[in-house]
């Protein structure tokens, strides 16, 4: 808590600087178009003040001002019915459900793989290199194809998107858990041996508890990355629903404010998901009696 | 032999014996006889002979030989068979068990010679990878999976060789222009910024949490905006890559620059080293593991960013463009060929960065032997 307060002022300054740069960029980037409008309307006696105000009130600006984005988010969340197709809450929910499903499958798959890798030398030797190689394949880039193919195979809706998230999120879990399950020290393992503990007992009483902190650290990465997977997975579905669809529709129709508001909704969602995992981490570790 | 190995060996031979009794498949609408698939008979014989292992020891490479004969038999049988039957799938399962047994026995060896150990850690994953490809081929062709859904690897390979010029042009556009330029600019500028703000603890405290937050965000979402700003050609893709690679590098470089201990810095002071000398001779080398970590993360991110950005608008060339149009035309084999290029490029890029890392951070415990 002390550290958070210690950092608060610098963070606020940095954020304030970013917002200031943003406003300056709004004026700079939107001015040419605004000047063009003035010229066409034969409006020659414009003032700088008026120009600045007008650049921040365009319908389809090159770069929308922060307050325009804020207003758009407010209008599409609070003032719209949640079930409406124009509500950002609805689109966020569509993305969130795919993210969570993919994250859950990915985490379970990752843990299962990690457990078998730790217990079988053959798995360790043969599968582990491919787990690492699997991530050098740009899956996000081929996500659209996978979605289309799965749709052709009769799988549609939530699952294809979730599978993209799964592919992305199982990796940090495998790597983190393999490290975690092997993090118990030699001396502790030897102690378990002197108790003549079975493999299962060693696993549940020693390996698993010492791997929990690693599990949460990798779940934080996994949940953020599975959100990215869900968003990209929504791009090719013909812009039906979800934050990715909002991005695509916005880019088709030049609705920059819509793009930015979807982007901010995604950012907010990512921050929430990561902090929920962080909170769970702290609660679980407290229950387990780990000192902070 | 361990219990698992005994079980695997028994099951593998048993399945091969059962397979002999079941219909292997159809040729021209009627059941094929075993005479149509001679290599599979050879495989079955070897599989049964391998049961001798229960009286006397058999070399692991013996299992490897049986596995290879089985794979050759299964692949060649697909030429004659039109539709695979239950016997065929039993052969597949049996051969797969032999492969598992082979890998299990190979990885149980603990060779003393380092060269042999290196070869072992290369061969075992290689067998696994090749088996994935073989299974893919057998399943797609044996059960006549529509090629629109999943083309067999052989078909993808043919398409790959046949359309090398197109693939090369796409590779140039996406990888050599957008990815490499964006990667160099993004990682380079982040490193410079990290060094600059490293001198100010205030900026560090402010920027690090913000950078951490931003690097967890779905930055790929800026792709449509960049396409709007920088046009359809590669600069917009490079811009996306710059944004995606910037924050991982910033966060890692700042963490890395704080790695050198007070004692080491004091030593540099006693040598009367200036700021730049300390930076160049102590702090950057100490930060190298972190910087390379970011470079490795960025190598995949860059490729992803460039390809996804192409979905939002491109000239009529580029890997992302080709993937999205060929999906629309249902030329799935071409899409897979493009994916193969992406996978090869991604792995090679990652591998090269990892090799450079080994050369630069030779002193690090994880590299040292």
Q: What's the CATH topology name of the largest domain in chain B? A: MetI-like fold
Number of domains of chain A: 2
Using the coordinates above, name the CATH class of the largest domain in chain B: Mainly Alpha
Could you tell me the radius of gyration of chain A in angstroms?
A: 25 Å
One letter per element, helices H and strands E, the order of chain B comes to HEEHHEHHHHHHHHHHH
* Largest pleated sheet of chain A: none
Question: What is the annotated CATH architecture of the largest domain in chain B?
Answer: Orthogonal Bundle
Overall strand count of chain A: 0
Instruction: Kindly report the average pLDDT value of chain A.
Output: 82
Low-confidence stretches of chain A: none
Structural class of chain A: mainly alpha
Q: How large a portion of the residues of chain B is in β-strands, by DSSP E?
A: under 5%
- Largest interface: chains, residues each: A-B, 60 and 61 residues
Q: Sheet bearing the most strands of chain B, described?
A: 3 strands, antiparallel
Oligomer: heterodimer
């Amino acid at each position: 808590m002390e550290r958070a307060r210690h950092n608060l002022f610098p963070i606020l300054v940095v954020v304030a600087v970013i917002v200031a740069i943003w406003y300056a960029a709004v004026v700079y980037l939107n001015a040419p178009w605004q000047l063009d409008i003035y010229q066409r309307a034969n409006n020659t006696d414009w003032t700088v003040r008026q120009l600045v105000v007008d650049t921040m009130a365009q319908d389809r600006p090159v770069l929308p001002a922060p307050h325009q984005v804020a207003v758009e988010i407010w209008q599409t969340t609070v003032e719209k019915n949640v079930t409406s197709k124009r509500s950002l809450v609805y689109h966020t929910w569509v993305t969130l459900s795919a993210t969570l499903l993919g994250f859950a499958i990915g985490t379970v798959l990752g843990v299962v793989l990690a457990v078998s890798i730790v217990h079988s030398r053959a798995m360790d030797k043969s599968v582990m290199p491919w787990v690492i190689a699997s991530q050098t394949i740009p899956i996000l880039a081929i996500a659209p194809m996978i979605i289309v193919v799965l749709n052709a195979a009769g799988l549609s809706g939530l699952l294809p998107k979730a599978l993209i998230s799964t592919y992305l999120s199982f990796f940090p879990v495998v790597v983190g858990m393999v490290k975690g399950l092997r993090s118990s020290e030699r001396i502790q393992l030897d102690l378990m041996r002197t108790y003549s503990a079975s493999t299962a007992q060693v696993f549940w009483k020693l390996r698993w508890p010492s791997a929990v902190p690693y599990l949460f650290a990798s779940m934080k990465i996994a949940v953020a990355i599975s959100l990215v997977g869900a968003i990209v997975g929504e791009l090719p579905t013909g812009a039906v629903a979800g934050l990715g669809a909002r991005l695509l529709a916005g880019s088709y129709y030049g609705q920059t404010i819509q793009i930015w508001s979807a982007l901010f909704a995604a950012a907010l969602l990512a921050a929430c998901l990561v902090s929920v995992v962080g909170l769970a981490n702290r609660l679980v570790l407290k229950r387990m009696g780990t000192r902070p | 032999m361990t219990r698992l190995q005994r079980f695997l060996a028994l099951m593998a031979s048993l399945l091969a014996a059962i397979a002999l009794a079941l219909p292997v498949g159809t040729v021209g609408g009627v059941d094929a006889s075993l005479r149509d698939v001679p290599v599979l008979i050879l495989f079955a014989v070897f599989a049964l002979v391998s049961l001798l292992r229960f009286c006397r020891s058999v070399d692991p490479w013996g299992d490897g030989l049986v596995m290879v004969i089985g794979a050759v038999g299964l692949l060649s049988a697909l030429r004659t068979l039109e539709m695979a039957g239950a016997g065929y799938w039993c052969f597949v399962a049996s051969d797969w068990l032999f492969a598992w047994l082979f890998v299990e026995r190979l990885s149980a060896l603990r060779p003393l010679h380092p060269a042999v150990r290196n070869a072992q850690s290369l061969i075992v994953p290689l067998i696994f990878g090749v088996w994935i490809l073989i299974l893919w081929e057998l399943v797609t062709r044996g059960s006549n999976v529509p090629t629109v859904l999943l083309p067999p690897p052989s078909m993808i390979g043919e398409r790959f060789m046949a359309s090398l010029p197109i693939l090369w042009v796409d590779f140039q556009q996406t990888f050599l222009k957008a990815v490499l330029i964006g990667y160099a600019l993004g990682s380079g500028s982040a490193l410079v910024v990290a060094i600059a703000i490293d001198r100010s603890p205030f900026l560090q405290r402010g920027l690090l949490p913000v950078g951490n937050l931003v690097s967890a965000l779905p930055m790929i979402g800026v792709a449509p905006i960049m396409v709007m700003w920088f046009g359809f050609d590669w600069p917009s893709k490079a811009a996306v890559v710059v944004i995606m690679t910037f924050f991982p590098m910033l966060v890692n470089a700042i963490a890395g620059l704080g790695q050198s201990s007070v004692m080491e810095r004091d030593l540099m002071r006693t040598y009367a080293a200036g700021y730049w000398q300390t930076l160049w001779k102590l702090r950057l080398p100490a930060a190298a593991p972190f910087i390379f970590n970011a470079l490795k993360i960025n190598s995949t991110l860059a490729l992803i960013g460039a390809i996804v950005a192409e979905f939002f608008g491109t000239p009529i060339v580029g890997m992302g463009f080709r993937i999205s149009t060929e999906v629309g035309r249902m030329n799935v084999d071409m899409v897979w060929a493009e994916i193969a290029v992406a996978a090869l490029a991604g792995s090679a890029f990652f591998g090269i960065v990892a090799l450079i890392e080994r050369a630069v951070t030779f002193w690090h415990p994880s590299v040292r032997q």
